[in-house]
């Protein structure tokens, strides 16, 4: 359940990040979706 919440929060933050280009945003979404455990963690540590 916690991982699902982290996944949704990461996707919302990626969507709202003004500094990301559309290409970078698409890459981040793919990373988060295809690595559902590590993806949000990587976003919270590196992407923000």
Automatic annotation (TrEMBL):
Pfam families from the UniProt entry: PLDc_N
Alphabetically ordered keywords of this record: Cell membrane, Membrane, Transmembrane, Transmembrane helix
Protein name, per record: Cardiolipin synthase N-terminal domain-containing protein
Lineage: Bacteria, Bacillati, Actinomycetota, Actinomycetes, Micrococcales
Domain Cardiolipin synthase N-terminal, chain residue ranges per copy: 6-48
GO cellular component terms, A-Z: plasma membrane
Main location: membrane
Membrane topology, as annotated: Multi-pass membrane protein
Subcellular location: Cell membrane
Transmembrane segments: 26-46
């Amino acid at each position: 359940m916690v991982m699902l919440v982290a996944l949704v929060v990461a996707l919302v933050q990626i969507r709202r990040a003004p500094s990301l280009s559309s290409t970078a945003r698409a890459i981040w979404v793919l990373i988060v979706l295809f690595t559902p455990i590590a993806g949000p963690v990587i976003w919270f540590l590196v992407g923000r």
